[in-house]
Amino acid sequence: MGVNISGRSFLKLLDYTPDEIRYLLKLSADFKSMKRAGVPHRYLEGKNVVLIFQKTSTRTRSSFEVGAFDLGMGVTYLDPNSSQMGHKESIEDTARVLGRIYDGIEFRGFKQSDVEEIAEKSGVPVWNGLTDDFHPTQMLADILTLQEEVGDVRGKKLTFFGDCCNNVANSLMVVCAKLGINFCACGPEARMPEADLVATCREIAAQNGCEIVLTEDPHEGAKNCDALYTDIWVSMGESYDLFGERIAMLSPYRVTKELMAEANPTAIFEHCLPSFHDTNTTHGQEVADEFGITEMEVTDEVFEGPQSRVFDEAENRMHTIKAVMYATLK
Question: What's the pTM value of the predicted model, to 2 decimals?
Answer without folding.
Answer: 0.96
